[in-house]
Design brief:
Strand content: 5-15%
CATH architecture of the largest domain: 3-Layer(aba) Sandwich
CATH class of the largest domain: Alpha Beta
Distance between the termini: 48 Å
Number of domains: 2
CATH superfamily of the largest domain: Class I glutamine amidotransferase (GATase) domain
Helix content: 40-55%
Number of strands: 13
Order of helices and strands: EEHEEEEEEHHEHEHEEEHHHHHHHHH
Structural class: alpha/beta
Radius of gyration: 22 Å
Largest sheet: 7 strands, mixed
Number of helices: 14
CATH topology of the largest domain: Rossmann fold
């Protein structure tokens, strides 16, 4: 029997990722019990503070065991949590416990913003990792040296796993079930819970709102210009001229402020506008292309797919109004 320990962290837990992840493992156990076999997983909730509050809820949840009493576990799941510097600082005992369990052979998986606590352990150093795309800025402020890939739903490196945000983190739980039990069991869980088992990217769901949590007012002015002139073709040289800088200095300053190159920022802003137009259903793909300053359908398609992971036509089918 494989022991799976859901860690009730010191932050405020987000119940959706916790309860649905537990249910995936329970459905895997059901697969075996329906065949007259023993359950494969022993599921428990552990923590250092045995009672935890849940985000936007009127109730709390209680751990079954204190981490001090857990001698050895096979897999630790860190659910989504509201995390900040204070919560991480108050989690030193939990961080040490995670590191020790990993050294003793446990695998560690974070769901959504659970990646903040996992990052604080140092176990993600030198590895790709993911979290909810909306938490990207906060994550990079706390852990600027980590290789954050918010387009990915799952990362896997030497027994350390991270997942994207929201319910897409269930794809990591299915990934673990498939690894431990095989494809048949994972498909059984996915079908019962109606989860898209082959989702690999968060990109179609990302809402780009521009990185403006900086103090460079001149760069903010350029960002505003880009966002209010999406129908125009614009170059980095033109933007540099607007603030009397040469191209190289402007590009460095822009990336230092936004963590994004000017070209990438222009593309992200234009593709976000294109996504909104495709969602409304009132324009066809060519009309949307012209409205964001593109005239070459191949260039538009390639840029759109680079940003969202799917083509404009696929996006319109998936998210557009019928």
């Amino acid at each position: 029997m494989k022991e799976v320990s859901f860690l009730l962290t010191n932050g405020v837990l987000k119940p959706s990722s916790l309860f649905t992840a537990i249910e995936v493992f329970e459905k895997a156990n059901q697969f075996y019990t329906e065949r007259g076999e023993r359950p494969f997983y022993k599921i428990e909730m552990v923590g250092s503070d045995l009672t935890q509050h849940l985000q936007n809820s009127y109730f709390s949840i209680q751990a079954t065991r204190d981490i001090k009493s857990v001698g050895k576990t096979d897999c630790i799941i860190i659910p989504a949590t509201e995390y900040n510097k204070t919560a991480i600082r108050d989690s030193s005992e939990m961080i040490a416990w995670i590191v020790q369990q990993y050294k003793e052979g446990a695998e560690i998986a974070s769901l959504c913003t659970g990646a903040f606590l996992l990052a604080a352990t140092g176990l993600l150093n030198g590895k790709e990792c993911s979290t909810h795309w909306k938490a990207q800025e906060a994550f990079m402020q706390l852990f600027p040296d980590l290789q954050l890939c918010t387009d990915k739903v799952i990362t896997d490196s030497n027994g350390i796993y991270t997942a994207g945000g929201g319910l897409s983190s269930l794809n990591l739980v299915l990934y673990l079930v498939e690894k431990y039990n095989g494809r048949e069991v994972a498909l059984y869980c996915a079908k019962l819970l109606q989860i898209d088992i082959d989702r690999h990217s968060q990109s179609p769901f990302i809402i780009f709102s521009g990185q403006k949590e900086h103090h460079d007012e001149e760069i903010k002015m350029i960002q505003d210009f880009i966002e209010t002139n999406i129908e125009e073709k614009m170059s980095v040289d033109q933007l540099a001229d607007r603030c009397d800088m040469n191209r190289v200095n402007f590009s460095r300053r822009f990336k230092r402020a936004t963590r994004t190159s000017p070209i990438e920022y222009i593309q992200r802003v234009k593709m976000e506008a294109a996504k909104r137009s495709l969602e409304s259903g009132r324009k066809n793909v060519n009309e949307v292309m012209y409205s964001v300053g593109y005239v070459d359908i191949k260039a538009f398609r390639n840029t759109f797919k680079k940003v969202t992971g799917i083509t404009p036509w696929e996006y319109k089918t998936k998210f557009g109004q019928a």
